[in-house]
Design brief:
By secondary structure, this protein is of the alpha/beta class. Helix content is 54%, strand content 13%. Strand 17 and strand 18 form a beta hairpin. The protein is elongated.
Length: 1309
């Protein structure tokens, strides 16, 4: 139900603020009708977000109220006067809804309204029941004054009575009801009677007016008229009898006459204490003392036991009760019963609160401050409490302004102590000088609100009587400059002075007992006390945060109890925007479990907020939420957090059960952790629970199919079938010609197998699979794919059905896992894997098929986190064959259709996977130039471009420009900040550190990049290691050390990180350094061997020697020193250089031969080794080899240097296919070079290659006797005598004098 609050206001701006504050959290809208155009009223309304309407006053309350109702939109209306306010704001919303829902046929609700007669005291307040809450539809006001709610249809109103949760205070009677105002009301009532006809109501309200004027004869006449009319004055009928009895008493009617009326009233209102009291007083006058005492005792019994339950107005209150108790004491004194007399005298004092007053008077309250240069704020703060305290103590820590003068002017005792960066020390210095029983210790930038400051002493007296120790005061933080609310919280600012009670902590100091324990505390209701704090204004927050951080870090470093600081460090870093460090300290804090301190849940709240903002961190969120519920079972919000964390995993039934805990959580008696769970949160959670219930119900009905097409996929089929068994109601396997047992596996598992002839068309096979499905949804995972969490699918699809019925298909995150490399993740990309059946969906495209929809485009939902799929099809042992197959299909299709949009992207990917980097670079650039977007994987194209540029050794400036373009296209991803930073570092650009830092920051924050897949895990270690090196080079050793530690944990660039670490600690003794490295990397012999190789490779020769010694000791075997070390001993540096160059040259000469062997090898590890070794070739050799690998994409270098360096390897070690590609490349240098190659092949007796070479020569320069002779010689050696003779005959025909041809012809004949 929507609730509206309505007001008509003249000029009561201050009262209006208090009233609005008491209900703003309970209503959905506020309507304020201003009848006098008062600027202060306008301002007050604006502060609370009220809608303000101007309505000139026309001496008609109903007219103004009905105008307000016309502006309201809620189903329920709360209509208060500006000088009325709710006592229990936290209960208003639930109280209204419960009553109105329970009594859904009711029109209006009568609620208790207390008319204050003395400021801030209910002892003499008068309680009436007033219609302040009602249903808007069908009701309106009537009457110029004392307006009444009536039904539009004239029918009888249905009334319900609210309880004390909805009690309202009214301060309007604190101002004297002047004769002029009463006579104005009489005139308005008489005019209303003339305009609308006189009714009993006019008599009733006129009687009240004349009673106020003490015209008792008129009061009796009009009251009699109202009473005998049989009219109903709901909630106020008893008032007629009160006024009549009191008027009769004033006019000296006889006791007998008054008793008859009192008995009549008592018969009509037996639940009210009033008329028992009236009868008792009258019976005293008749000297019927026993009866009088009995009637008076019954009055007090009704008041003590049932007063809150009565539905009629009452004049009874504590003051009246005290008079009644005194009269009973007098009766017993007259009767000579001293015991009863004293008992009732004591009872009268209790009603008057004399014991409490005495207690308040003897209580001594001290207010304390520590201050430095804050005179303006100190003045305002002291003014807010000076009337309530007995002692003011101000500790000044070095003010240069007038802070001391301000304190002295208010009578404070001022003590000067030097500032020592220790807030606890300063506060304890103030406590040492306190003489009061209670201490109010607030900061200079805090003050008690104008609405609550007068209650300060009474509140302390009350809690003193209850035996409490520490009060958590509502803490309202505002931006002083704008008035904006920044935070509402609680702060322990008031406490009982105890021996040994003191503060601890340089910053964020806490109260402790002498034994170190935290004293028990309890929150105060904001309506009783509110402390306003201006110190967190935007202008000061950063400065204060940095100061606090410095003090906290110093304390944590030097304290015996550093864990005290962790939650404050978490909060400070959080406020400063450093999520990584906030998370770090919050995790350390909650690892200790719940502690007996105020706001012990602070770190839990920080982590739950951080993790809740990043859906990818749902695992951490759930773990923290589960711990939070265990540690803080009394906090409803922790149960709500657990419910949301479970719902993020689509565990909806569990989420509903957890959410119920939010409504049944029982607060502890002594609260150190006030709940932040509001009624609005509860209502929102109820709505969420309803949705979760619908999803859980849908999950039970849902039918899911798993559909796949296969061909010889037995190696993956078992896993696929086990995976689908968790979620699928049916499995459809379309077999396209398997011969490896795939069909048998599927049938054995209960799948329905459909035969389908393979047509070199992936779309056709997929369409056959989904056509066989009989379900609501189909999961179309490939055979080499499986869900990491298959049990999540059913609830997930139910969620889509309930919340996104328009969605046709869902893209899920595919995680490429290399099963041949220990399960290493190699990349991620989203793909469509969930299809809603019955929507006309089908696939199109022979390879890299796309989803289409009959009559339009399919509506897709991109799931970024849940239901990740493990894909092993790109494992290193499979990927080459898959790329070759896909390339063949693509080429066949392109022969028919030409190049289509999107083809460049797939070709770039395929060529890169085949190691054809030049072609990949060409197609990647072309793909980026296309206007074809790939949902969630567009950034992959930029990665592909940068990877290909690196492989092709593009100029560094070009790579940097491409990285900048990628970063600007995807600024939220850490990926390209990191890659750009690494490239800038290589270019010695000062901007590198900023980019590397930003990459790591974004990675830690798990920033949402609109679903774009990130490949940063593969780069994180390199980015971190590069940042560590830059920090080291900048001289920031501590930061470099910290970053180096992170790089080692990331573990994707371990050697680079170790190199930085060793350089940072190069002065450390070798034994200590090696021990440190082993602690980080491992202590076994294999790790020692690894560290030895690392040290050798990176030139840390002394460390390598130390590692070898340790390895020998660990294994009991001698570890040989590399031979080159011995060769380098004892020779000059020039000779060392020559020796190393010679050794390198020898290795370089061997590299082409190794490359040729790797190219022919079909093992999974050979292609990456081939690519790495090719990159190590000298530039000239690499340039020629690029053309050899990719003649269509990489140009033949103009210089023949590279060719000359690799020629001998091809001549002696190339197979026929390699030789053919080599000769095609050589042909680009012309016939002479080609002829020389042919002769070289022949000389090496590589006859097949020689035969091809001479054919190439003939093609380039034309057939000649020499080329024919060369082919004849090669054919002869290959065993083809006839072919050789044919070539020789042609040669001799061409040149009869060709001596070699003649000789060979004679030889073979």
């Amino acid at each position: 139900m929507r609730i509206s609050a309505c007001y008509i206001v003249k000029d009561e701006a201050c009262e209006l603020r208090r009233s609005l504050a008491s209900l703003r959290a309970a209503v959905d809208e506020i309507v304020v009708v201003s009848t006098a155009g008062n600027a202060a009223v306008v301002s007050a309304a604006a502060e609370f977000g009220a809608r303000l309407y101007e309505f000139p006053w026309q001496d008609d309350f109903s007219l103004a109220r009905n105008y307000a109702l016309e502006q309201a939109t809620g189903e329920i209306v709360v209509f208060l006067d500006a000088d009325e306010f709710f006592f229990h704001p936290e209960d208003v919303h639930s109280g209204i809804l419960e009553m109105m829902q329970e009594h859904n046929d009711s029109d209006l609700m009568m609620i208790p309204l207390w008319n204050y007669m003395t400021e801030n005291s209910l002892r003499d307040a008068q309680r009436i029941m007033s219609p302040r809450i009602f249903r808007r539809a069908g009701l309106h006001y009537e009457g110029l004054i004392h307006e009444q709610l009536v039904r539009d249809d004239g029918a009888e109103r249905v009334i319900v009575y609210g309880d004390e949760r909805l009690a309202v205070g009214h301060t309007g009677y604190l101002k004297e009801r002047g004769e002029e105002k009463i006579r104005r009301n009489i005139a308005m009532l008489e005019r209303d009677a003339q305009l609308h006809g006189r009714t009993p109501a006019h008599a009733f309200y006129l009687a009240d007016c004349y009673f106020g004027l003490k015209d008792y004869a008129q009061t009796l006449r009009l009251s009699e008229e109202a009473l005998r009319s049989n009219a109903v004055f709901i909630g106020e009928e008893s008032k007629i009898y009160h006024q009549m009895i009191e008027s009769m008493r004033a006019l000296h009617y006889s006791d007998e006459e008054m008793l008859r009326l009192a008995d009549e009233a008592l018969a009509k209102y037996p639940a009210l204490p009033d008329f028992y009291a009236q009868c008792g007083m009258i019976l005293c006058g008749l000297a019927r003392y026993e009866e009088a005492a009995e009637s008076l005792r019954e009055a007090l019994h009704c008041y003590d036991e049932h007063f809150s339950q009565i539905h009629d107005s009452s004049f009874f209150n504590d003051a009246v009760a005290a008079l009644v108790a005194e009269r009973i004491a007098q009766i017993y004194a007259h009767l000579g019963d001293v015991v009863q007399e004293n008992a009732w005298i004591t009872r009268a004092k209790q009603y008057r609160g004399e014991e409490t007053v005495m207690q308040e008077e003897c209580l001594r309250i001290s207010a304390c401050y520590i201050v430095r240069d804050d005179a303006v704020h100190l003045k305002k703060s002291i003014e807010s409490l000076r009337d309530a305290v007995d002692e003011l103590i101000v500790v000044d820590t070095g003010s240069q302004d007038d802070s001391r003068g301000v304190a002295v002017s208010y009578g404070a005792a001022v003590y000067e102590i030097p500032w020592a960066d220790d807030f606890a020390a300063a506060r304890n210095a103030a406590l040492e000088r306190v003489t009061g029983d209670w201490v109010v210790f607030i900061d200079a930038d805090e003050y008690f609100s104008a609405e609550t400051r007068t209650a300060l002493r009474a509140v302390i007296a009350q809690v003193d009587a209850e035996g409490l120790e520490v009060l958590l005061v509502p803490w309202h933080n505002i931006d002083e400059a704008t008035g904006e609310t920044l935070l509402d919280s609680y702060a322990p600012r008031i406490f009982r002075r105890r021996a040994g009670r003191h503060y601890v902590g340089r910053i964020h100091e806490e109260l402790r007992e002498a034994d170190g324990s935290a004293p028990p505390s309890r929150p105060v209701a904001p309506e009783l006390l509110t402390l306003v704090h201006t110190g967190y204004s935007a202008a000061l927050s950063q400065e204060k945060g940095e100061r606090n951080l410095r003090l906290l870090l110093a304390e944590a470093q030097n304290s015996d109890n550093p864990e005290r600081c962790w939650r404050y460090l978490a909060e400070t870093y959080d406020n400063l925007g450093d999520e990584r460090m906030a998370e770090h300290y919050a995790l350390r804090d909650i690892a200790l479990g719940r502690r007996s301190v105020v706001y012990a849940a602070r770190s839990y709240r920080i982590l739950l907020r951080l993790y809740g903002e990043h859906p990818a961190r749902r695992e951490e969120r759930l773990a923290v939420a589960e711990q939070a519920v265990r540690d803080f079972p009394e906090l409803p919000e922790m149960h709500a957090e657990l419910a949301e964390a479970l719902a993020a995993y689509h565990r909806y039934t569990e989420a509903i059960a957890a959410a119920e805990g939010a409504f049944t959580a029982a607060p502890t008696a002594m609260v150190t952790e006030p709940s932040l769970f509001t009624e609005e949160m509860g209502a929102a959670l109820r709505r969420r629970m309803a949705i979760w219930g619908r999803i859980a119900a849908r999950a039970k009905e849902l039918r899911i199919a798993a559909a796949v097409f296969v061909r010889n996929d037995a190696r993956d089929m078992e896993t696929w079938l086990q995976n689908t068994g968790v979620y699928a109601d049916e499995c459809v396997v379309v077999d396209t010609g398997s011969t490896d047992g795939t069909r048998a596996l599927a049938k054995q598992a209960g799948a329905r197998v459909v035969d389908f002839a393979w047509q070199d068309d992936f779309a056709a096979a997929r369409n056959a699979a989904i056509a066989a499905v009989n379900a609501d949804w189909a999961a179309v995972l490939d055979a080499d794919e499986s869900f990491f969490e298959p049990s999540e699918l059913r609830a997930y699809l139910a969620m889509v059905d309930v919340t996104m019925p328009h969605v046709d298909a869902v893209l899920l995150p595919i995680v490429h896992v290399d099963e041949d490399a220990g399960g290493r993740e190699t990349g991620r990309a989203p793909h469509i894997r969930l299809l809603r059946m019955g929507r006309g969906l089908f696939y199109e495209g022979r390879v890299h098929e796309a989803l289409r929809k009959v009559g339009g485009e399919p509506i897709l939902y991109h799931e970024k986190i849940a239901l990740s799929i493990r894909h092993v099809g790109y494992s290193s042992g499979r990927i080459r064959a898959k790329h070759e197959r896909n390339l063949a299909l693509m080429e066949r299709r392109m022969e028919e259709t030409g190049l289509l949009p999107g083809d460049c992207r797939y070709l770039a990917d395929t060529y890169y996977g085949l190691g054809k980097y030049a072609a990949a670079l060409l197609y990647a650039r072309a793909a980026l130039a296309e206007d074809v977007q790939s949902i969630g994987a567009q950034s992959h194209l930029h990665h592909l471009l940068l990877d290909a540029m690196e492989k092709e050794h593009c100029p560094l400036a070009e790579q940097i420009a491409a990285a900048r373009q990628a970063r600007d296209a995807f600024p939220q991803l850490p990926d390209f900040h990191g890659r750009l930073g690494i490239l800038l570092a290589a270019a010695v650009d000062a901007a590198a550190l900023e980019e590397l830092t930003e990459a790591l920051r974004r990675s830690e924050q798990h920033a949402d990049a609109d679903g774009e897949a990130s490949a940063f895990p593969a780069w994180a270690g390199a980015v971190s290691a590069a940042r560590a090196r830059l920090l080291m080079e900048a001289g920031d050793a501590a930061a470099a050390q910290e970053e180096c530690a992170r790089a080692l944990v990331l573990d994707t660039a371990r050697e680079e990180a170790l190199d930085v670490y060793v350089e940072l600690h190069r002065t450390m003794p070798l034994e200590v350094l090696l021990t440190s490295l082993r602690e980080m990397c491992g202590t076994d012999a294999a790790t020692l061997a690894y560290l030895t190789r690392f040290a050798d490779s990176y030139g840390w020769l002394a460390l390598a020697a130390q590692a070898r010694t340790a390895l020998s000791s660990a294994t009991g075997k001698a570890v040989p020193v590399p031979e080159v070390y011995g060769q380098l001993q004892g020779i000059s540096s020039e000779d060392q250089g020559r020796l190393l160059v010679g050794m390198l040259a020898e290795h370089v000469r061997e590299m082409p031969e190794v490359l040729l062997h790797l190219e022919r090898d079909r093992h999974a590890e050979s292609p990456p080794l081939y690519a790495r070794l090719r990159d190590l070739l000298p530039e000239a050799m690499r340039a020629f080899w690029r053309h050899y690998d990719e003649p269509d994409a990489a140009a033949l270098p103009e210089s023949m240097e590279g060719y000359n360096l690799v020629r001998e390897s091809f001549i002696h070690h190339a197979d026929e296919a390699q030789a053919e590609r080599f000769l095609r490349a050589v042909a680009g240098y012309g016939a002479p070079v080609l002829r020389a190659a042919a002769e070289a092949f022949a000389a090496a007796q590589r006859w097949a290659a020689a035969y091809m070479a001479w054919a190439f020569v003939a093609a380039v320069e034309g057939v000649s006797a020499d080329s024919l002779y060369g082919q004849a010689l090669a054919a002869l050696h290959m065993g083809s005598r006839d072919e050789a003779e044919t070539y020789l005959k042609e040669a001799l025909c061409s040149d009869a004098g060709h001596m070699k041809a003649k000789e060979l012809m004679e030889l073979i004949r």
